[in-house]
Amino acid sequence: MTTQRRSYETGHKPKCLVIVDDTAEWDRAVYYASRWAKRVGGGVVMLRVIETEDQNQQWLGVADIMRAEAEETASEALDRAAGRANGIAAITPERVIREGDPTTQILDVIEKDVDIAMLVLAASPGPEGPGPIITTMAKTMGAFPIPVTIVPGGLTDPEVDALS
Fold first, then answer.
1. For the domain that residue 146 is a member of, what is the CATH number?
2. Quick one: DSSP state of residue 90?
3. Does residue 7 lie in a domain region?
4. Is residue 10 part of a domain?
5. In the prediction, which pLDDT does 128 show?
6. Cα 134 to the chain's mean position, in Å?
7. Of 6, 3, 23, 43, whose CA–CA distance to 132 is shortest?
8. Alpha carbons 48 and 100: distance in angstroms, whole number
9. How far apart are the first and last CA of the chain?
10. How many CB atoms are located within 10 Å of the residue 12 CB?
11. What is the pTM of this model?
């Protein structure tokens, strides 16, 4: 069951969700989303998902250290992305760090924030395919609760400016 979107109701503002991962093209998604938010008076929610490894590790202390390091890396990535968004559109995006399966976490963030009106992803321009998130999500795209915008990773800033 999908929560009704309220993005354009009184007291709400539309937001787009952007995934900040380790791919080179995340910047294209952040750039597009920031320009869109500035144009429509909306906001940006940036999500970094920490994929969990084997939770039944023998050495729990090691697992705790690994989790702390992953959270620090996630926070640093979101700092870079937020700085980029602020430089592009003078906005301060919301930041979310989740742990688990990326598709499950993306859907949960959307479900819990009724103002998220769009998911923005960027596709790798390389021969290896569009990227892990797009490849995984393609199977469920038809039943997705909000529109998904896929920005070609090879677009330049002026080319994205012309579209957003």
1. 3.40.50.620
2. S
3. no
4. no
5. 87
6. 12
7. 23
8. 10
9. 31
10. 14
11. 0.90
Place 59 in a pLDDT band, splitting at 50, 70 and 90: low
Alpha-helix runs per DSSP H in 4-150: 26-40, 60-89, 102-112, 132-137
Please state the domain count of the chain.
1
Cross-strand pairs, 16: 44, 118
Find tokens 């979310």 and name the residue.
96
Is 52 within the bounds of a domain?
yes
Q: Are strands 116-123 and 148-152 parallel, antiparallel or unpaired?
A: parallel
Report pLDDT for 145: 92
Identify the residue with better confidence: 126 or 17.
17
Q: What tokens does 21 get?
A: 């991962």
Q: With the CA atoms of 118, 131, 22 and 106 taken in that order, what torsion angle do they form, in degrees rounded to the nearest 10?
A: 40
For residues 22-38, give the mean pLDDT.
95
Taking alpha carbons only, the member of 30, 20, 29 closest to residue 109 is 20
Please give the average per-residue pLDDT across 20-44, as a whole number. 95
How far is residue 124 from each of residues 67, 78, 93, 127, measured CA to CA in Å? Answer: 28, 20, 23, 8
